[in-house]
Amino acid sequence: MASPDVPPRWTHLYKVLTKSGPFSDEDWVPGPETITSLESSKILVIGAGGLGCEILKNLALSGFKDIHVIDMDTIDISNLNRQFLFRQADIGKPKAEVAAAFVERRVKGVKITPFVGKIQDKDEDYYMQFKIIVCGLDSIEARRWINSTLVGMVDFEDPESLKPLIDGGTEGFKGQARVILPSLSSCIECQLDMHAPRPAVPLCTIATIPRQPQHCIEWAHQIAWQEQRKDDSFDSDDLEHIGWVYSAALERAKQFQIPGITFQMTQGVVKNIIPAIASTNAVIAAATTSEALKIATSCNPYLENYMMYAGEEGVYTYTFEAEKKPDCPVCGNLARKLTVDPNMTLEVFIETLGERPEAQLKKPSMRTEEKTLYQRFPPQLEEQTRHNLKLKLKELIEDGQEIAVSDPAYTIDFRFRLSFQ
Amino acid sequence: MTEAFPRALVGPSSKERRYDRQLRLWAASGQQSLEDSRVLLVNSDGSWGKQNTGVSGVVGVETLKNLVLPGIGGFTIVDPAVVTEPDLGVNFFLEEASLGKSRAEETCRLLRELNPDVEGTFQTKPIAELLRDPEFLPQHKLILVSGPVKRSSLVALRKSAKSLGIPVLYARSVGFYSIFSLQLADVFPIVETHPDPESTQDLRLLNPWPELAAVGASISNLESLDDHQHGHVPYILLLLHYLEQWKEAHDGNVPSNYKEKSEFREMVRSSARTSNPEGGEENYDEAVAAVLKSLNPFSLRSSIREIFEMEECTRLNSGSADFWVIAAAVREFYQRHNVLPLPGSLPDMKAQSADYVSLQNIYKSKARKDIEEVTEIVRRIEVQLGTRVVEVADKDIEVFCKNAAHIKVIRGRDIPQVAGDAHSLKTLRNHLSNDESSIPIFLAFEILDDIVTDIQDGKRPEAALDDETVWESGIERMVGALTSDDPSAVDDDARERIRKAARELRRTQGGELHNISALTGGLVAQEALKVITRQYGPLDNTCIFDGVRSGSEMYKL
Description:
The structure holds two protein chains of two kinds. Chain A is of the alpha/beta class. Chain A folds into three domains: 8-172 and 276-303, 3-Layer(aba) Sandwich (Rossmann fold); 203-271, Ubiquitin activating enzymes (Uba3). Chain: B, domain 2 (Arc Repressor Mutant, subunit A), CATH 1.10.10; 336-420, CATH 3.10.290.20. Helix content of chain A is 35%, strand content 16%. Chain A has 14 helices and 13 strands. Chain A starts with 10 loop residues before the first helix and ends with a strand. The mean pLDDT of chain A is 93. By secondary structure, chain B is of the alpha/beta class. Chain B folds into four domains: 2-185 and 514-555, NAD(P)-binding Rossmann-like Domain (Rossmann fold), CATH 3.40.50.720; 203-294, no CATH class; 302-410, no CATH class; 422-506, no CATH class. Chain B is 48% helix and 9% strand. Chain B has helices at residues 14-18, 20-35, 58-68, 85-90, 103-112, 127-130, 151-164, 210-217, 227-230, 235-249, 258-271, 282-294, 302-309, 311-314, 322-337, 353-385, 394-403, 422-432, 439-456, 468-482, 492-506, 514-533, and strands spanning 38-42, 74-78, 119-123, 142-146, 168-174, 177-183, 188-190, 408-410, 542-546, 551-555. Chain B has an eight-stranded mixed sheet, sandwiched between helices. Chain B has a two-stranded antiparallel sheet with strand order 7-8. In chain B, helix 8 crosses helix 10, helix 15 crosses helix 16 (353-385) and helix 20 (468-482) crosses helix 21. Residues 1-8 of chain B have low confidence and may be disordered. Chains A and B meet through helix 1, helix 3, helix 9, helix 10 and helix 11 of A and helix 1, helix 2, helix 3, helix 4 and helix 16 of B. Chain A: One of its GO terms (molecular function) is NEDD8 activating enzyme activity. Chain A: Keywords: ATP-binding, Ligase, Nucleotide-binding, Ubl conjugation pathway. Chain A: It holds the Pfam family E2_bind. Chain A: It is an enzyme of class 6 (ligase).
């Protein structure tokens, strides 16, 4: 029975916060303390898109009162099929602001603070103020950045410095939710190879022997644009630009007798569009916020640590504990082993780092303990190290040697031990 | 060829832009089915004791949200409840000003805001009353029910729906648990199952048709090709070529077991040129990688064989659905040729553009020829069956042929009950003995439904929702039903697991938690979309989500 001082609005939620269940921890003390701790938990939501809109709504209706949200994007018409806090009239406005205002208006008593910008604009002091961070992002790069930042913030003398990171991601009917306790449990970087990028089409195929409509589109986007419109910087949101690529691709396809190019496909290839629907977002977003509620209140045990979901064929979930890897470049202390062909040039090796599931570094610079192998910035250093690109790996390093790789997208160095094939 | 290359640049319409991210999953045909459908949401069914309605119906509203956004044609919300304070703490589609107003009307209004293309109406009368109008249910293509609901209402609803062939999704979300079941029509066929492209490859390398065999024979001069040409022979042709060599040395037989295939693979591998600057050839690598996967004789999958043997397929009548007419024609095609119609798709592979395109055309023309043959059979069957009103559409025959190896037929089952049929009983018992099973959650929900029914019928007070003795006797009744002919079917451990699930479920006294209802609304909407578009594979037939353990299980009950 609800006690008289329970606000009627939160009747249902407060029942799980004021009464223990058969699976809640034996030491847990339900009651006002738990409720206060929930209401005073400052929580950050990264992303106000498909997942973010749902996450904000869910947190507000889970009793969180002080929510912050970061997103750099503005609203596009293609968001409206799932980002339910946005309307036709909002197109062009910043997502974080519109989403925050909507949920604040709808749910009485919740404060949502938007920030329109990049997560990289904020420093450790900013992230330190939150109790939990929930990510609803479509970029692996941004996830890796926040992950390494949070791992870097952990000070074992200060338990408050450990910020649980709850991450969600979707693609079509599939998705995953995971809970990361930075430095204690498997992190985004430990799990990097579970989310391998799609292999890129080799440049020679695009340039000389296209076979698929996608190859013609890549040609128009990567080669024809450079040749014919290099003074315009390509904008994938500009329909005129996409239209031009579409026409150029059609021409090329005609020349090679390749059927099947459509405008929709052109957009998909050029913008690397991932299909997205409201229902999958709802599942994954709610999975992350359910964990946030459990972590903030201890009313039930939280996910340890990964739930994958696939909805094409019935409803399938698989919940398991991903392993913390001792050779994780972010939370481990050993260098990660990469098997390489000693006859490969440094240039090719650098290219493969972008695609190798366990590295996924697009603009790497690298050095051994003794010397710099290749350094992109500043230009003088680039010039000094450029000649190394043509050298074979075996001419630069020894079998089993460790290299440190940096990439402008990340604040940390990645350590790899190169083992010759 | 010209029509494949539109001259004019046609950009997407604003609707295509709005729905772009989902059209990539279910295409214009799926979108059309969605826009042609109206769904009914029965979001509560009267009061529980003094509560104006016990069910908050968040799972129902969240499900509808996920159908309104992608552009369902229309919806009807049936909900006799009036908005209360607790509703505002769980339901996002209500606002301060909604207090005291009709919940059906308010949720309908705020859901409609999500998509101006969707039409929405509401009813404040209870469903039992609305069912008296025979015109009411048939307007809808799908029925969603938020439980727990009075047994009599649920039974009436699912029976009417069944007789009309309308699918029903019955969802319940209470505390950290949720459960939903899908009741489909007796026979529910799906053609566009969207299998993984890897599993749909059908290259016919062991039994090439004459045109394919001929192009395979065209590279007999392989040795004389220069390095560039040699490195660009499509791997399909390489395999056909080396298969011929193998057959010559093996009395005309193809490599048939693992050992022979491994030998054959070695033969291909060792034929690659390694003296070039790359030290190998990509097309040979592709050929080597394809040996074990692609060199299998055609065999009909057992699920397709079962469909061919179904009575609907073997005994057509003038009322048979188009699906069965085409299925019967494809069966006849299979009986003639021992293969299904060729899907006609070709994976990408290292090759010169022109060589690839001409190989692709060989596959495509064969697929077209197969479709023509199936179409002829369909037309002949139509004549034999006589008075069919509309002839089977060419497009449907084509789509069927392309997907023939992956079609699916689900035999719809009723919304499950403990005292249901022998199959349910057996399944429940089997799973109950597994300590990881979520079946105790199903049983706890069934007990809750009984208690709610008693409260609604005035047989118990509202306090029964969290009354130890009421729940204990409910558990006893469930166990009794499961053990009526076999007392050993439920042991003490299983009983304890049911008790624990019941205690967790009791925690909120029937109340919903927003997260769990939002998650479940996502899952239920996903199933609704698959049923309405007739694409992908719908649930058969019950899913339980456990928010304590963060995972779900599927059961056929």
